[in-house]
């Protein structure tokens, strides 16, 4: 039987898109406490069922597909620009396809304004009316209001008319930044992207007998299985080592390894890889926020996920991308060279600590690829010394492998500043490998 929390989530998911939701309404309709209702609504917001907007409330929205994560809903736009809704509230759940800055003549503006777009415009009522008739939402800048006719059109077409105090170009920059942030998130692979779901997974229950393991082993040739209780919560892991020399009439809970390490669906792939390498785990159960079993992730899944993410084209450029692009390797000296650009500096105009760590990590990664065939996971990075390095400075980075084993490596990294001809930084890195 599902928990109250799961029942509330299912109820919210079943509501029509655009429905306004409140803690009191959920508590009354489902006969639960307001505290339970509040926690479930927050979880619904995390998984993308609802969106909460100041001065509007919480509304049911379309759950965005992963491939469209870079698209924003109009509800999210309201939050981003700290705006307020003048009309068309019932359309806040809709997805924004593109935005148009209305800094041109009306005829030219309408050539770019289409269904699903957002027209960013000032106090131009004619433009607002035409945009709504074309199926576009309106964002009025400068804090202006609009006419009752425009508001009634917005309500009729279910297209939001939003007002905010910023100017058009500031608003465009804010929305563009939000889309960029979404694009970077899209590139981060999480366990939810790669795990094997419950309907493709073999499990045992704690009250099953050891003989059930032998039956599954014969069918699947697998030797490791998650162990669940009858509420579908993970309580253990059972492997061939646990089964050896055990009577077949014993129950699984007598032989299993209890309290196993699990991964949540929201855990990043990098974090899962680190845990599996460090703990020597071949198979890890995957659970949701309520600790309900969702599937499993194997070491093979992790390797495939890491290889896939390395092959993906970067849409949003991160600091790691910037570092990798500017790093040049000189084979004859086994050194790396780079130049400090403005994006790599802090507010004082010197090389930032985070970028220094990224430089060291990337140098170690490239150095070890020449020695090992596995994927590298940083276990520990210690920066012993770092002095201010100015914009435009040329750096030489010299890695020295101190120890190299089958599953680990220890590397000393020195950073030399050409401009001053002296040591600019020194770090020690310990890594682990996931063998392919």
Q: Secondary structure elements and their pairing?
A:
Layout lengths: L3 H11 L5 E2 L1 H8 L3 H13 L3 E4 L3 E4 L11 E2 H8 L2 E4 L7 E2 L1 E4 L4 H7 L4 E5 L3 H9 L3 E4 L7 H10 L3 E3 L4 H20 L3 H4 L1 E2 L6 E2 L4 H11 L4 E4 L5 E5 L1 H4 L13 E2 L4 E2 L4 H11 L3 E5 L5 E6 H13 L7 H8 L1 E3 L4 E5 L13 H17 L5 E12 L7 E11 L3 E10 L4 E13 L2
Parallel strand pairs: 7-8, 8-9, 9-10, 12-13, 16-17
Antiparallel strand pairs: 1-3, 2-3, 4-6, 5-10, 11-18, 13-14, 14-15, 17-18, 19-20, 20-22, 21-24, 22-23, 23-24
Your description of this structure?
The chain has 15 helices and 24 strands. The chain has 436 residues and is of the alpha+beta class. The strands form six sheets. The protein has a six-stranded antiparallel beta sheet. A five-stranded mixed beta sheet has the order 5-10-9-8-7, with helices on both faces. A hairpin with a 3-residue loop joins strand 22 and strand 23. The longest helix has 20 residues, at 168-187.
What can be said about this structure in brief?
The chain is α+β, with helices and mostly antiparallel strands and 436 residues long. The chain has helices spanning 4-14, 23-30, 34-46, 74-81, 106-112, 125-133, 148-157, 168-187, 191-194, 210-220, 240-243, 269-279, 299-311, 319-326, 353-369, and strands at residues 20-21, 50-53, 57-60, 72-73, 84-87, 95-96, 98-101, 117-121, 137-140, 161-163, 196-197, 204-205, 225-228, 234-238, 257-258, 263-264, 283-287, 293-298, 328-330, 335-339, 375-386, 394-404, 408-417, 422-434. The two termini are 41 Å apart.
């Amino acid at each position: 039987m599902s928990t109250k929390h799961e029942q509330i989530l299912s109820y919210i998911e079943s509501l029509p898109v655009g429905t306004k939701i409140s803690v009191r309404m959920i508590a009354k309709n489902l006969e639960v406490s307001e505290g339970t209702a509040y926690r479930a609504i927050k979880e619904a917001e995390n998984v993308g069922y609802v969106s909460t907007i100041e001065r509007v409330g919480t509304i049911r929205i379309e759950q965005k597909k992963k491939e469209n994560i870079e698209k924003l809903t109009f509800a999210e736009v309201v939050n981003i620009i700290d705006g307020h809704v003048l009309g068309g509230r019932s359309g806040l759940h809709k997805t924004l396809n593109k935005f148009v800055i209305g800094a041109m003549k009306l005829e030219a503006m309408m050539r770019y304004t289409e269904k699903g777009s957002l027209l960013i415009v000032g106090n131009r009522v004619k433009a607002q009316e035409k945009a709504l008739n074309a199926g576009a939402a309106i964002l009025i800048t400068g804090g202006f209001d609009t006419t009752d006719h425009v508001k009634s059109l917005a309500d009729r077409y279910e297209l939001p008319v939003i007002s905010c105090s910023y100017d058009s170009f500031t608003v465009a920059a804010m929305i563009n930044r939000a889309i960029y942030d979404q694009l970077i998130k899209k590139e981060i692979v999480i366990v939810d992207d790669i795990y094997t779901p419950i309907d493709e997974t073999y499990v045992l229950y704690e009250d099953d007998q050891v003989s059930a393991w032998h039956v599954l082993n014969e069918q699947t040739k697998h030797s490791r299985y998650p162990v669940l209780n009858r509420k579908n919560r993970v309580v253990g892991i059972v492997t061939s080592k646990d089964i050896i020399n055990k009577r077949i009439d014993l129950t699984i809970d007598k032989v299993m390894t209890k309290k196993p390490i699990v991964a949540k669906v929201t855990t990043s792939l990098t974090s899962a890889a680190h845990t599996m390498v460090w703990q020597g785990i071949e198979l890890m159960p995957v659970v949701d926020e309520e600790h309900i079993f969702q599937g499993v992730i194997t070491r093979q899944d992790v390797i495939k996920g890491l290889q896939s993410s390395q092959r993906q084209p970067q849409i949003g450029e991160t600091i790691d991308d910037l570092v990798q692009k500017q790093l040049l390797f000189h084979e004859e000296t086994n050194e790396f060279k780079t130049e400090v650009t403005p994006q790599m500096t802090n507010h004082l105009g010197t090389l930032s600590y985070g970028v220094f760590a990224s430089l060291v990590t990337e140098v170690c990664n490239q150095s070890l690829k020449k020695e090992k065939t596995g994927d590298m996971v940083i276990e520990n990075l210690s920066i012993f010394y770092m002095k201010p390095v100015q914009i435009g400075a040329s750096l030489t980075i010299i890695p020295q492998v101190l120890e190299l084993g089958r599953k680990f490596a220890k590397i000393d990294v020195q950073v030399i500043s050409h401009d001053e001809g002296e040591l600019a930084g020194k770090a020690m890195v310990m890594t682990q490998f996931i063998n392919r």
